[in-house]
Design goal:
Jelly Rolls; single chain; 9 strands; globular; four-stranded antiparallel beta sheet; five-stranded antiparallel beta sheet; Arc Repressor Mutant, subunit A; alpha+beta
């Protein structure tokens, strides 16, 4: 049986990967690419890159793994690495979009694991036009764009500084500004590393003991960290990732149910259907046919 075309995967939408710095960062005006595509960016994914957009005028929406997020200027849009997404902009929308290699971002965020963890969930955040966070983001994005297009001495150091500034701003608007203690930081770092392991191994259907072993901790310690940071057990975080991958295939490919099941490690399609129904509330066939 012929397989359906894969979900398109890019670094920059529509560009072949050899034209960009895959291990670094790219910044450009929103109008530059979106205007060329009639203000609609079709469903695709960036396997190893995070996107952060500052929408300065106009607005629109993004759909990430089937969930809609509106954004009306001034606003931020955050798309984690690997998530299938599409974007619809109002005509003449503008701002700055930064596309950041995950490995580069982790290196920049090494000073504080919370800075890397903040880009794991999609979000939009609208601002009042006279708000202090907006002024900070606007200055950081404009400086990032300016440094990206220049070839001045210290360019990479200047870009890293502006990216850290943006990540700190994201952390402050995405979570309450409370003092973190040592255990909270350790739990955050642990769950961040667990999620990275899930990305590499979720198709192999390993038990939680495997992940705990890779992290050199007990299953109980992993569960405690996941409950503290995400409010969910380690198993539920793993099952959530399996369900997300199944939803992506159901929404964006024509693969059959059994093919999807096998692609994410389920040997029995009937068991996969029961698993999916428990997670999504509807069977796979109905989820695919939903308006």
């Amino acid at each position: 049986m012929a397989k359906a075309p894969a979900i398109p995967r890019f670094f920059l939408y529509g560009d072949p990967p050899d034209e960009v710095e895959l291990d670094f960062l790219h910044a450009e005006r929103i109008q530059l690419r979106s205007g060329q595509h009639d203000w609609r960016i079709a469903a695709h994914a960036h396997p190893d890159h995070v996107q952060i957009l500052l929408v300065e005028q106009g607005g629109g929406w993004m759909r990430v793994d089937g969930v809609d997020f509106p954004a009306h200027a001034p606003a931020l849009m955050l798309i984690p690495a690997g998530m299938v997404h599409e974007i619809g902009f109002e005509p003449d929308t503008d701002g700055v979009v930064a596309t950041i290699a995950s490995a580069y971002l982790r290196d920049i965020a090494r000073i504080d694991p919370a800075l890397a963890a903040v880009v794991h969930r999609p979000m939009t955040q609208e601002f009042a036009t006279d708000s202090a966070p907006l002024a900070e983001f606007s200055a950081a994005f404009e400086a990032l764009l300016r440094e990206f297009v220049w070839q001045a001495p210290g360019r990479r150091a200047a870009i890293a500084a502006q990216l850290q500034r943006i990540l700190v701003g994201l952390l402050r608007v995405a979570t309450p500004q409370t003092a973190e203690v040592g255990m909270a930081r350790r739990n955050l770092d642990l769950v961040h590393r667990y999620r990275e392991l899930i990305e590499h191994h979720f198709r192999q259907q390993h038990r939680i003991a495997f992940y705990a072993g890779q992290l050199h901790i007990t299953v109980a310690r992993l569960n405690a960290a996941c409950q503290d940071v995400a409010g969910r057990s380690a198993s539920n975080l793993l099952f959530d990732r399996l369900a997300i991958e199944a939803k992506r295939h159901l929404l964006y490919t024509n693969l059959g149910i059994s093919e999807i099941a096998h692609s994410i490690g389920f040997e029995d399609a009937a068991y996969f259907s029961r698993f999916f129904t428990r997670r999504a509330g509807v069977p796979p066939s109905r989820f695919r046919g939903a308006p």
